Each structure stands twice: as structure tokens, then as C-alpha cells.
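Hey, can you fold this one?
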Amino acid sequence: MGLFSLCQSCFGYPLSIFFIVVNEFCERFSYYGMRALLILYFQRFLGWNDNLGTAIYHTFVALCYLTPILGALIADSWLGKFKTIVSLSIVYTIGQVVIAVSSINDLTDFNHDGTPNNISVHVALSMIGLVLIALGTGGIKPCVSAFGGDQFEEGQEKQRNRFFSIFYLAINAGSLLSTIITPMLRVQVCGIHSKQACYPLAFGVPAALMAVSLIVFVIGSGMYKKVQPQGNIMSKVARCIGFAIKNRISHRSKKFPKREHWLDWASEKYDERLISQIKMVTRVMFLYIPLPMFWALFDQQGIIEIQPDQMQTVNAILIVIMVPIVDAVVYPLIAKCGLNFTSLKKMTVGMFLASMAFVAAAIVQVDIDKTLPVFPKGNEVQIKVLNIGNNSMTVSFPGTTVTCDQMSQTNGFMTFNVDNLSINISSTGTPVTPVTHNFESGHRHTLLVWAPSNYQVVKDGLNQKPEKGRNGIRFVNAFGESFSVTMDGEVYNNVSGHNASEYLFFSSGVKSFTINSPEISQQCEKQFKTSYLEFGSAFTYVITRKSDGCPEPKIFEDISPNTVSMALQIPQYFLLTCGEVVFSITGLEFSYSQAPSNMKSVLQAGWLLTVAVGNIIVLIVAGAGQFSEQWAEYVLFAALLLVVCIIFAIMARFYTYVNPAEIEAQFDEDDKEDDLEKSNPYAKLDFVSQTQM
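Sure. Predicted structure:
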């Protein structure tokens, strides 16, 4: 028996939770790995524009947070948590396989030219795959955490709380590794007839991890404690609430005595146990009312990423570090100080820390604003001169004259009023040429010159720093004949002579680009590399012709990269991560501990629903109002978070903690006494008589 007990537990924890934690790690790796590729897959493989791809992506994410309600209902009312997890994991795995198949270029590339002949097949398969994934990941989400909580016995609250910390750690570890690994797989080249970015491999690995997740979970089947579902509980809950409201309305006269709780008006028809269980759930759900606003504001953390390529994994890394520190060091120290740090107090502190993260972001933003380039406003235009010719050029503007040597540019942009703008170009020994162009106010322009009488005005199209820390790159043709350029999967088509392409945007790092033109000799080098791209910069690459007729790139800076140290951003991420660790893990544990045994998954789904509603709020209000100053927006977010925090703290102050297991045990005891009375009606009478004697 001792050996059996040893097999069933490890350091006081049920051995079964090992399988649940590994299952969650693999599932989160699968989900986040697939999700990290979606936007690029939509744009580069399916050929969708930014707006359509982003809309489908956000719809998919929102669906993943809405389907937990369905999974919770199936688990608590019909199949039970174990069978629900297994069934929906199979659906989930099929979805991952379908989307991996949809990304196989050769599936419909009948003429082997590298382009699918029937893109609608790929679109249909990818949409079917995403719907199955949303159903699977959302459906199992509330069940896995609740099923893990079920493995603990009464009196193991400390171990159960730590399990939720480990569970959250597994989520973020899976997320962290997948978002690093899957983009690396995507840039590999594969294909039967044509070599392209290897989306099948990048999607296939998450599909394989989901299959591993399912297998690991099923292997532990014999060790699990499986709580059986108790019928269509949600139908009973809805009917009970409906009857209580109806009964209260029909007895609103003063002649009817008030009852302690509005749900007590259902006591004429429904048993006290069910009413008590519904009270537990409604009290918690009432506390959740302000939480969607918290999540809506918390999700704005993405906008404080100034250098996302370096910072996008910082949050996940900090969570992996902070979860064990908070759980094993911070909480025990607080307990030793004699402070009663309850779940709701933890959640309130988490909200406050998230609010302070936005204050820190505002302080950093003020520093950033000092380094940002100034862009034209109102009736202003900004102009810089780029000399792509072989002679020195003199260009006169109102109040100033500049001289540009061959293959050089002016030192930055010059600002002028569009209404009294006159520009003249000259060179030694040549007549003056006036520039006739309708300059657009509020924009930057580049004046390309290559001879005293030859010029081209190009509207830059950049009125702000490139978003999300990306880098703008454009090409200017000083080569002569038209050419195309391919860089990191993006194509600049037909850049005509003495003209400039539009800017395209790239992440940090060194990028390779290839110049394609029938006029370039086969002996010439066509592939080149950029300088190291940092964050938030913009460059012009002028392609010139060398004496041997081969192309040569020259680099000119249009917008300098961000100069704010990444170290200044660490405090805001640290505060945000601490807030998330204290708030999210506690929310999972609180939702489980305060739920009756027959509605554990439902309350977990209710917790996830607050995240879904928060995401929907973000979608609705996105772009509704823009601040002229970014730091002011952060201050507003901090203030709103603080208001939500105060409202939640007041609501939490009046919450009474319950122990559902004790309450249900008392009902079981009462039921046994009632059954005993029914089977032996004289038992109680005999007991009373003997007492009186």
C-alpha cells in the first residue's frame, strides 16, 4: 500500500498533475506557435491585405475566448472534464493538421510555377482549421485547469494553489518557446516543385505538439480523479434563477416578508443545495463585472512596446522567472509578517501594479518624445535634397541655400510654408532651373536631382516613426533601366529610372535583397545585404551603376533608429509581469476554490469570458480616439486602471469567502439524516423520548 501511495503522489502532490501540466505546456506551445504565424501566412501566402488579415486574426482570438463556455457546459453537464478534454483535443489536433495542409503550396500548384492555382482551396482549408482550433483550444481551456484542481483532496489547498502557479508557468513556458521556434521554422525553405518559406513545417510542428499533448494526457488516465457530471446543471441553474426572479416580482407587495437573498424566492420549487450553489456562483460572477475593463486596458500593453523584436518575449521570460519567486518567496514572507493576504487582496494588488506599469511607460515615453523627429504639421512641408548625379548641385529655398556633392543628401529635412515655397536648382556654369511641383502640405518630400535641369519630387509617405519598431526601406533607381527588388519576402516591382519606390517595412536585423533586371549582366553580383536594421528607422537605398555596368547600393538615412535604452523599459515590464502573476494566477485559483463541485468548469469559463469581453471592448474602441501625445494616453490608461482597481477593492471588501466542499458536505449530512428518518420514522422519536426521560 505504501508503494502504491508513493506512485500516486510525489512530494505531497498527486502524480496525475504531472501529466496535466505537460499536457498544458504542449497545448500552449501548439496554440501560440500556430498563432505567431497567422498574420504572415494570411498576408504572404493567402495574399490578403493588412486589414482583412488583422480582422480575421482578431476574430479567431476572440472566438478562442468565447468557446470556453461551450466546453464548460459539455464538461459539467454531459461528458465530464476528462472525456471533454480528450474529445475536443482530437478536434483541436485535426484543426492543426488541416491548417498545416492548407499551407502546402504544391497542393494546388498544378503548373509548378510556385503559385497556387486555386487559392480558394487553401483559404477554405485554413478557415476550417481555425474554426476547429478555436473550438478545441477554447473548449478545453476551462476544463484542464479545473480538472487539475479536482486532483487534490480536501486539506490540500496549499498544494492546489501552487499547482495553479505551476500551471500558469507551463502556459508561459510553452508560449515563450513556440514564439521563438516556429518563426525560425517558417524561414526554412521547402517544397516539392518550388522552394518557398516552409509554412507546412512551421504549422506542422505545433500540430505534432498537440498530438503529443493528447497522448500524454491519455497516458495518465488511470491516475486521474474523475468527478462525474451531475446532469444538465446549467439548465437547472437557469430555471432556478428564472423562477426566483418571477416569484419575487409576483410577491413584491409589502405584506410578504423579505428574504435574506433574492435567490431564496426559489425555495418553493428548488432544493436548498442548488440554491446555495447558485449563490456561490453569482457572488463570484458579480465580482467579475469590472474585470473586462481591466483586461481591455491590460491588453493595451502591446502599445508600450517600443522595440518589439527585442521586447516581445520579455513578458513571457519575466513570468517564467517571477512565478516561482512570488510563490516560494514573496507570499511566504508576507504570511510571516502576519498579513492576511487573501485572494481578492492579491488581485487588487495585481491591478494596482498594472496601473503603475502604465505610469512607468508614460515616464519613458516623455524621454522618447525628446528624441523623436519633428514632422510637418498644418500648412508646413518638409524637404530634403538627394543628389543621385555625378556633379555638385546647388539648391536654393526661401531663406537658405544648400549645396549637395555627388551622391549625397542634405543634413536632414528642412521645414517650409507651402504657400510661399520657391525652389531653384543650379550647378557651376549652368542656368537656374525652377522646381515646379504641387507640394502636399503636412508631408515630407525628397527632391531627387541628377542634373541642373533634371529632378524628380517624391512624396515620402512617412508622417511618423515606423510602427511597432519596424524599419522603412525604399529604393531609388540611379541605375538607369527599370528593376525590381526582392527583400525578405517583399517585392518592389518595376522601380523606374530616376524614381523612388514606396517604403516597405521590416523587423530588425540584417536583410538580404536581390536586384532583378534583364539589363544586368549574368556576371554581376545581384544579391546584397542591408546594414543592421535597429528599431524605428527608415533608409533610402540608391542603386547606382558602377564603371563595369553592375549595380551598387548606396545607403542614406531618412529617420534615425530609436535611441532610448532598452533598460529604461524593464521597469514597466517588471511591474506589468508582477501584476499579471499576482492577478491571473490568483484569479484561476479563486474561481476554482469558490465554485461548487458541479460548476468548477463553468466558473473557470466565466473567468475566461471576462478576457473575451475585454478583447471585444478593445476591438470596438480601437481607433475611436487618438491622443496627440502618447504619454497622455498612458496616463489615461493608468488612471482608468486605478479606478477599476478601486471599484474592485470596494466590491471585494463585501465578499464573504466560502468553502464549497464544507457546505456540500453539510448538505450530504442533512440528506443522510432525512433518509434515515424516512426509513425509520420512529428513530428520532425514540431519541427524543430517551432524552426526556
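The CA atoms of residues 342 and 586 lie 9 Å apart. Let me know if you want another pass with a different chain boundary.
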